[in-house]
């Protein structure tokens, strides 16, 4: 007697029976990476021999990400951490401009006054057209004052700074490098980015306040806005510790941290974290408690905003731009050994802050430029 087993009966006694093949089960697909995970991958893929370390903070309605990759110090091989602080160069100009705007609102100065009403002849006599320039023009780069970081003076400034590491240099020390240098133009007749305008603004603040303006920057800006991991470089070094910064010279990575620890200037005042710098920019753009609409109008209103040949407009401590089809306010910083990107996208309410502890050589600069473009493309 024969039996059909599992329905495998043939029509002939010589037929071959075959076992049925199990049906393949669909494999579960991994979840796509989150935006935060994708951003971290970008950071991890950027660091290496050319870029020691990077930090990134992105904040918006659907994301609050802080990431770090690489090293904060090459010599000790210390890993970069999200809480690390770094000099942010010109990205700190917005803090200086904000303090000026606050004092204007309080009636302690008038932003459209001539600077000659505030500074002594010992300074004014060495600055061409100092009798014609206003505080507002200092801050939106229409004063024409010679830049101490221009090609004809920057080398002398850095040489002096290296020779005097450990000795604090402030606004007046940097300003002296442009004494009797020709102005770029008469005030109000052109636009030329000049760090020296902020040195002069810092000195005006000191005259008005009767002490170094770092005290009131802390009292009126840093503390009220909750910027607890931010301090004035050179002046308040006891309040924090900067990571190392690197430039490539003669094939060797040179650490520029000691130079910047010895400098405290109003054109580059802040040492801060990526998240604190994001918060400063976001508060300037959106806060309605500490920063009034009148203050915001002073910083980025029509009276302060000027068209330029730089591809974006200048306000006080901030630039207005169009990036990826959106209105963006930004101001980064490029120091020897450090670079900062700090942007606020108005329509999406997103703040992006990127730190790298290298700057000034091609391999680093190109890779960090690629990174910021990749980050923005993800948002």
Using brief descriptors, characterize the structure shown.
single chain, Beta-lactamase, three-stranded antiparallel sheet, 12 helices, 14 strands, 30% helix
Question: Describe it for me?
Answer:
A hairpin with a 2-residue loop joins strand 10 and strand 11. The chain has one domain (53-71, 82-378): DD-peptidase/beta-lactamase superfamily (Beta-lactamase, 3-Layer(aba) Sandwich). The chain has helices at residues 35-46, 93-105, 121-124, 135-139, 154-163, 171-175, 196-209, 214-222, 257-261, 274-286, 293-300, 362-378; strands at residues 53-60, 63-73, 78-79, 86-87, 231-232, 246-249, 252-255, 270-272, 313-314, 319-323, 326-330, 333-335, 338-345, 350-356. Helix 1 (35-46) runs antiparallel to helix 12 (362-378), helix 2 (93-105) crosses helix 8 (214-222) and helix 2 crosses helix 11 (293-300). The strands form three sheets. Strands 1, 2, 3, 9, 10, 11, 12, 13 and 14 form a nine-stranded antiparallel sheet that branches. A three-stranded antiparallel sheet has the order 4-8-5, covered by helices on one side. It contains twelve helices and 14 strands. The radius of gyration is 28 Å and the shape is globular. It is of the alpha+beta class. The N and C termini lie far apart (73 Å).
